[in-house]
Each structure stands twice: as C-alpha cells, then as structure tokens.
Design brief:
Distance between the termini of chain B: 36 Å
Largest interface: A-B, 25 and 29 residues
Strand content of chain A: over 45%
Order of helices and strands of chain A: EEEEEEEEEEE
Oligomer: heterodimer
Number of strands of chain B: 11
Helix content of chain B: under 10%
Radius of gyration of chain B: 14 Å
Number of helices of chain A: 0
Number of strands of chain A: 11
Largest sheet of chain B: 7 strands, mixed
C-alpha cells in the first residue's frame, strides 16, 4: 500500500535558525498537504500542493512539490518559538480516497 | 459553525469493555475518516468513509468497526478493548474540491486509555 515517509523525526533549533522537513511517497501522489499540530492539539491544515514542481509561500514557510509528485518539503526561515509543534505531510492515494499521513517531524525551538 | 465534534474527549476502559466514539461534522462533507495517533507513529488511518453508505479499511483496522450513520455522523466502535488500543483518536472530515484538491478538518481528539 501507499506509504508516506517523513524525515527527520525530531529537530531542535535555536530561534532564528532555519528548519526543513522532507516528505517522500512510495507512489505518485495526486496532491500533498501539510498540517501543523501544536502540543496537545489537533492537526490543522496549512497548505495543499497539486501541480508538479509547485512552490508556495506563507510568510516564513515555503512549501515545494517535487517534479515527479512523489516528494515534498517544508522550509521555515528564521524560526520562532511559535513554530513549535509537529508538522505532518499527507498524500491522497491514487484512487483519490484515502488520505495517508507521514509520521511527522516534531520541531522544538529554544530562545 | 462547530466543524468536527468528537465525543467523549477522555475515556478510560478496562480490557474487554466496549465503547463507541462519536464524530459529527456540520460542513456537509462527503468524506470522513478515523485516525489513531501514537508517539512516534504519526497519524494512522483506521477506517474511512468516502461517501455516505460506504466504508473502507485503512492501515490499521483490526479491532475496530465503523458506522456511517448518515452524512453527518461517523462512529468508531471498539468491541473488546485491548491495552494496545490506548491512543489518541482523531476524526476528520474531508472536503474534495476541483483538480483533486483536498483539505482535512480534525476534531479535538479522544484520549483513550485501556487498562
């Protein structure tokens, strides 16, 4: 079945440093989404990428979808303590029904 | 708008007991999902319902059953709880738009402990 792998599992940075998490799928995805979960909370939708090679930005966050639509990345520039949480990528299976999540990258930021 | 509502928020069960986790959405979405979240394991799909009247197994369906009662409600049942089912359970309602666009809305979660 479809698998979505995410690295690293954990990342600690000093405030102001950059952060990147990577997502790889075993199959070609129709789209990929990114979610953020704060400690004790529930996942919240950040963004979706649909087109091959697509790049989207949200303030300090940059999202990229690979040319083959099998990988994606989330880059945060100049992290802040408010960026703390777990970032998940999620891909829709080829049938367009099941939404499969990666294991997430937990980001901690020290000031 | 309440979005996605899950009940209960917390539950402690003894091994062998049964219970049903309730989920309701008021966004008129066709698709609803149940995930479990365990430390280091991310969100694993238990069952999903792509539309009213249909349900399908996800990655980890063993020990669970589901019912899509109507378009709004999707329940998850544990018939005989086991300690391995201790987890945080999330229900999600998913909107699918043009060009395959997808966005999931999550409930607040149910923290279940089986002793």
């Amino acid at each position: 079945g479809q698998q979505v792998m995410q690295i690293p599992q954990y990342q600690h940075v000093q405030e102001g440093e950059d952060f990147t998490t990577y997502c790889n799928s075993s199959t070609t995805l129709s789209n990929i989404q990114w979610y953020k979960q704060r400690p004790g909370g529930h996942p919240v939708f950040l963004i979706q990428l649909v087109k091959s090679g697509e790049v989207k930005k949200q303030k300090r966050l940059t999202f990229q979808f690979g040319e083959a639509k099998k990988n994606s990345s989330l880059h945060i520039t100049a992290t802040q303590t408010t960026d703390v949480g777990t970032y998940f990528c999620a891909g829709t299976n080829q049938a367009g029904t099941a939404l499969i999540f990666g294991k997430g990258t937990t980001l901690s930021v020290s000031s | 708008n309440a979005g996605v509502t899950q009940t209960p928020k917390f539950q402690v069960l003894k091994t062998g007991q049964s219970m049903t986790l309730q989920c309701a959405q008021d966004m008129n979405h066709n698709s609803m999902y149940w995930y479990r979240q365990d430390p280091g394991m991310g969100l694993r799909l238990i069952y999903y319902s792509a539309s009213e009247g249909t349900t399908d197994k996800g990655e980890v369906p063993n020990g669970y059953n589901v019912s899509r009662l109507n378009k709004r409600e999707f329940s998850l049942r544990l018939e005989s709880a086991a300690p391995s089912q201790t987890s945080v359970y999330f229900c999600a309602s998913i909107i699918r738009g043009p060009e395959g666009s997808t966005e999931a809305f999550f409930g607040q979660g149910t923290r279940l402990t089986v002793v």
